[in-house]
Amino acid sequence: MKRYALTLLCWLTWSAVQAQLILGGSVVSEQNLPLAGVKLTVQGTSTSTSTQSDGSFNLPTDQPLPLTLLVSRTGYAPERVRVRNSNFRAIEVRLKAEVVIPESTLSSASEPVDEQAISGVTVETIRAHAAANSPALSPADALQYTNGVDLLTSSFLFKSVNMRGFGSTTNGRVVQLIDGMDNRSPGLGFGFGNVAGLPDLDVETIEVRPGASSAQHGPDAILGLMQTTSKSPFDYQGLSVQARLGANNVGKPGFGPKMYSDYGFRYALVLNERFAIKVNFQRLTGTDFIADDYADRSTTARPGFFATDAGRSGVATGITFRPGIDPNTSFDYDGVNIYGDDVNNGGVFRYPATYANTTLQNQFVTRTGYRELDVLGNQGKVFNNRANASVHYRFGNSVEASLGWYFGNGNLIETSAFRNYIPDYRRHQFKAELKGDNFYIRAYTTQQQAEGWNIGQTARAINDSWKSLNQWATEFGLAYVENKVSIGDARFTANRGRYLPGSVDFNRVRNAFATTFNTDSIPGLPRARGLRFRDNSQLWHYEGMYTVAALSELVELTVGASFRRYVLASGGTLFARQANGSEYTIDETGGYVQAAKTLALGAVTIRPLLAVRYDKNQFVNGGFTPRASVAVQAGIHVFRASWQSAFRNPSPQQLFGLTPAGIAGDVGGLRAAYRAAGLDTNRAYRQSDAVAYQRNPSTATTPQSLTLSNAPLQTETVRSWEVGYKALINGKLAIDASLFSSRYTNLITPEVLYQPLSATAGATALLTPASYRTLLLNRNSPNDFFVRGASVSLDYNFARGYTLSGNFTHQVGLVTLRNAAGAVRNDLSGTPIVQRPTSDPAVTQLGRTYFNSPANRYTITLSNPYLTNRLGIALAYRWTDRMWYEQGVTQGDVWVPAWGSIDAQFSCKLPEFKSVLKLGGTNLFNTYYAQGYGLARVGAMYYVSLTFDELFK
């Protein structure tokens, strides 16, 4: 009996040893440099892991020896490594770099795939280890080093991703996905940046695809796609912790510097070979970048804004307006980040032509405004919480089910028509997914809570609550005329008793407007409405994809379909409502089919691909988006070419956007929206038609009011072709270049209108700024837009681990102006405007085109993550060309200057503690710049961080 017991004990002990077998080793390149992010999988199982920053790995398995490890990383030839008793703790793998032909595009409206799964299009990928080795503070910030990507920073946490023209602080033409889920606001139609992104420690890859992508990823990916993929708990296990401290706003007199902190953790646990869980959390607190441009506003709303050539019948040749900085010497000073003094938002008074003093006859005089920082009243403080949790279960080796929760919460400043402050944004996303090698089924919902208020309108309301504009202007005029004082002294006299920032009265009035919805009256303030808006809209999305395995020998055929529903919920503060008072819902459906085939013809491999999808929004006509592409590999050279189409459905705000009576803002393009705004009974006037009349009403032609068309809003469309080339030469020089051209039609652009506050006032209301409001009406532009450009990126690996990288992007926007009937328009000298630059003054004189993109940008990076076995460095220089910028109501129209930034980081690996210490900064020399007009001015960000990775694994 004892013998049997001893035998059983030995067997159990051996079984336990087998169950706890831990494989270990390292992966290096041909140059003997450690490779991070390499995936290792035990063949025949789902057990896998990834290498750490020093190339090392540990992989628990219950499989008996010998076994085979599958080793892979993008850009390197995969390897199969045999593991035996003699080497299971000292496995050494050397990967060889190679360029491979792209595989099939087996993706639907939001399927995250690797760049090697993209046929015939440009793809840029940021991996976790690459982001960690860059000077960027976060993986999302590493986008600024990516070829073809422009970031517009509205605030510390809110950065809009732009590609291939038509840049925007709220770009809804670039689809942003997180683990296959649309990251955009359900109602407003744009992404909230990193406020609701993944925690940094859970980001595995960020993939960027510039250009039309609707055929693979559904409507709205008209300019490009950004996919962020989280780390699998099966591949990245254990506890990771990160702590970062830093400072910004350095050199701000009387304000900076300000400290910020950023903490996070990630924990993933594999309970057995099939079941795994993970949880993540990150919290950031600090002080925002400050919008503190106090120069006089440059805007086409100012009469006499353009310099004109009398010999060409007044055609614009440039900007005659020269911004000043002193309200004491300027009648109509309008500070960029000072509000309540806005010339196009009720902050200016026009003295009549019969005024007693000739100096003030027909003169515009702005009242004194408040700085953005004063109106906010929070000293620029920002916070952000991000979290997610998920459970994963694997059925066999190829099917995985998962349930996930994603959360984002924080405060931010958003810039569209105005600067809007959202003090406590909250978003939950819930996802259920089942996926295998050739299919997936996914369902998710976005639940949002967003309330905020308009900074500029609040400043105006504070002024008006203290003293009406007419009363203020009367006192200013009396002081200036009777007392014969200077402009500054006249302002001082009219401002006596004004609510001072931070005072009890100032805070009381600001809070009253900021906390009362714009549909409600404010107690104690007669005829005053609040300025708070709400967007608690929801999104419900369902989709699936299937690759027909039975046809795999003949053709790779993939089909897919999707359905989504938007449930608007603003209580009438942002969106028009139905006649019965209920909120609108919006349904969208879509489906696609794709066929691809890899053909081996001797030493050449060719892969053609065809795809087409159809999508329909219930309020807009549907459309097909075909795509054709081909990739050809000959040795180390890969050539690609594609022709693609894409379309974009209007966002819910562009369909049903509403600004309550008397308030400036956006109006949707559907008849229900502009009826709710009164535009059918109280017609508005184009700003471009009104400016000349406002400047000199006695000689200019009286503008005609705008008759709105009953034609429905149309989807935006683009037709684009692209050719490209990539290669890896001698395992050292990587080249990726592309050339592209696109034509856009039916772009939805906001047209600036002036609507009299009284339906009977007519055009004469335009002569009194307080008698009309400024609206941005979303309409299909009749113009044809063209974007042409090229990009190239080069990476060269020197000896001893040094890499020199660089990328350059050139893009130019052209426009052919057309009238509502489709005929080509002429400039004011009678010359047709056909494919002229969007920044041409003769074009901008006739209205905005919103191209908002620099012609040139480049980045140069020198890095060595393996300077020694512990030390690493990275040094980068970013440069962006000047750009003609058109934005909103209270932003303006201006040439934003070119800017450059030097960034650097120094890292030290501490393998005994599984940690990395990092010291660095962006914009090291603290040269402040703004990436758009009226946006926060970005200075240096200095930081130190400590990351502990995969503890307790």
UniProtKB/TrEMBL annotation:
It is a multi-pass membrane protein. It is found in: Cell outer membrane. The keyword Electron transport does not apply. Residues 121-224 form the TonB-dependent receptor plug domain. Its main location: membrane. GO terms for biological process: siderophore transmembrane transport. Residues 1-19 form the signal peptide. Coiled coil: none annotated. The keyword Cell membrane does not apply. This is Carboxypeptidase-like protein.
